[in-house]
Amino acid sequence: MEHGFVSRVATADWERALITGNGRQGALVYGGPCGPAGSGGQDGGGAGGPGGAGGPGDLRVTLSHERLFLPVTEPLPPPYTAPVLPELRALLYGGRPREAAGRVVALAEEEHPGYADTRWIDPLVPSATLAFIPDSPAGDHLRSCDFATGLVTQEWGGTRQEVFVSRPADVVAIRFSGARGLLRLAPIGEEPPVPVRFASAAGAGRLVLDAEFSARWPGAIEGYTVECRVVGPAEPLSGGLAVSGDVLVLARTVIRGDRPDPIEELPADFDLLLREHATVHGDLFARSSVRLGRRAQAPQERQGGGPGIERLFQAGRYAVISSSGGLPPTLQGVWSGTYDPPWCSGFTLDGNLASAVAGPAATGTPELVLPVFDLLESMMEDFRENARRLYGCRGILVPAHMSAHGLHNHFGPVWCLTFWTAGAGWLARLYHDHYAHTGDLAFLRERAWPFMTEAALFYEDFLTGNGDFAPSYSPENTPSGGDSQACVNATMDVAVARDLLRNLVHACERLGLDPARWERLLERLPGYRIAPTGELAEWVGAADPPDFPDAPGGPAGAGGPAAGGIPVADNHAHRHASHLYPLWYERDPAFDDPALEAAAVLAVRRRLAWWRGAGSDEMAFGLVQLGLAAAALGLAEEAHEALTLLAARYWREENLVSTHNRDAIFNVDVCGGLPALVAAMLVRSSLPPSGYGRVDLLPALPGAWPYGEARGLSVRGGTVDRLTWEPGRVEAVVTAWAPLLVICGPQRARVLPGETVPLTFVGLDVKLIPELEA
After folding, report:
1. Does pTM surpass 0.90?
2. Domains of the chain and any CATH numbers
């Protein structure tokens, strides 16, 4: 199969299921001759177990919906810590960060007993499992997934099951051929964490499951209905439908209060529905591709065998396309097979979501990032409430975790997440980048500008008189020798604010506004710091802390400047690389300083050295962060090593879906991150407020890729429609919406707005295009 894969591995584990989806609804397709539920992996979940639809020896489709967050934890107002901000700052500058973090928790508990334990967000849960239990479960098993159409197929014995989720019709279409057995629709075989009243019915040509939730608070969904229209020979039997021959099932999850058109009005024509869906889905999928090697070569295989980078580029894009609908992908995309997903499978904004949507932005599908903005804009009042109550500030403050609401409820004495204030500024970069990639001036004016200015309003009020970020937080790291994640002037906070304010100045130029206000705020910010050991420091610290009478002072630690008495020596044994933010998007001009650039290079290499060890088995998207920084610095081999580690450790060959840890935790973060990293190694772009934008071709091309081709790469100011390279020669077709300077090694060319120009660069240095080794 050109786009997709075929496997003979059956599984009862939903985490190893094949995936298909339309962004709004998802389907996990699994089962077959795999023994009891759970025998195929960590957690059977899915249909097996008490109350489940099926059991050993069935074909299953577990259904889900992007808005199906089970109401478990009632949202609370964020703790009112604004009045004690001077006290928190005194503790931080005085070298008592743990006390500062603990003070927030204590104050929250005093306000509301619900804060006595760490509060989580509502989990993304499955709606039901549709199981087909064959009368005679025997025979060979084969399953496949076609990335270009979204069609998933299972064949077992004489039965063939085909599944996709239609974008135009918003329905899960399931076709059985040669079926003889029982169809059952039921909740998954787990006990939900809160009471849910289920009611099911089976009738002529119909299966229905209704769920009513026990929670009753504003904004919580009240329940849902799964309805299945069954077309073909089917008779009610044992709470399900006995089917024989060829049967079509049209299934969908309807959230309580929604009013879709009757399912009976949809055409009972699988092939027609598939053609209509494949036209839309196929257009998205076909927009970008890579070939790494000669045209006649088979796709490269990663170390130790298994799928190569090209196939993972396809698989990652497929997963993100399939889970981008009205909302962006959660940690698990649009899929869930459990009531207890890790981190509740919401939207984690201190790294995960940015990784998941980095791929669509870079690979020709910018419209798939729009759901991020829809989500954020639906929660602006919550974000304003966070800023008001936590810090007494105007503007917005985004929490690190959210699902059904945006109130800042998740924090603790160790994970002191109320101190992380970079979220809105980071997300503002996604707004600005959408404009930079598309040239949509109306979007810049009507959507990006309002969000960006609210993010900056917060900084106007929050920064101390000398421009410090206090409190501050570098996700989720603790300085070496320190005892708390709380700090002053995390490098990420400084970098995000610098980036936001530069982009606001840029936007003012485009919109004809006065940038002086934002330029003044930019001048107040701290600079970056080089650690005594030579790396870009993860904590800038406060070199000149203000005088707090009640703050016990202390000398700076050996690691450099301190926030009062807080040592800020770097800790490289960590999964995040947040201090490298100034290199992930458009490179911060501060790194034109050779000394600072050299410090960033050393920081990449020190963090990468930790990733090579056995202890670095968690959180794949940290390698995306590291690889993007390496690519921005022209560190081709380091970027390639990060990419190789991603491919070797964090993908399951049974379904080509990425994981959060090594072979553990179904997670789509690097389904977006890996394609973005490949793109960053092949093109780099920047767009100033005026004059020519810049596009660098092959800025971080590793020696492993002497030949190759890429299509449909988005850049700031236009697109690289086609890029091919071989030793000594590069060809590109570039389309521009802004004036662009295209650079390849020492050679350059200009492309003007509205032009599509074929370019050829020859006689290039072999360091740029490495020759094949003998």
Report:
1. yes
2. 4-71+127-286 (2.70.98.50), 84-118+379-542+550-571 (1.50.10.10), 693-762 (2.60.420)
